[in-house]
Design goal:
Elements: H1 9-29, H2 52-85, H3 87-97, H4 115-136
Helix pairs in contact: 2-3
Length: about 160
Amino acid sequence: MDDDPSLSPYQQSKAKQRAEATALVQQVSGKPKRNAKGQLLPGYSGNPLGGYSRARRELNHQTIVEMQRAFARGGANAVNKVMRTNPAMFLKLLVLLVPREMQIEHSGGIKALNDEQLERTLEVLREAIERREAGANAKLIQGVSEPIVTPVLPRRKTKRKEP
């Protein structure tokens, strides 16, 4: 590349780097992806591999697929082993599987019920209240517990280890 006297030394070094990069891209792909000013040519993306979110989604997808294959090979046995040998890790894995946020949507509530459903709901509630009141009005039998004599078991002799 010829040095342009109208450019500062910094601009000249940047232009040289750009030209070297363009030449390298041409060697690899056979087509220039940028023009002389360093602008992308039509039809070329400045980020051909996509953003980090796409890469992360792809990695997550591949990881899940491989985990499914591994679980099919012996996952149930591995989970049972972790559950027996390291219950804290087992619980941590369970917690990690639960979503952090759950969206709860209300679907109409009582207003969405028809007359038949509303009557049945009222019947169930009345029955529950009657059972609770019946339990509250139940008679309490007062009593005193008597102690039970248990036999004294002989102590087991322990073996002492000699140093």
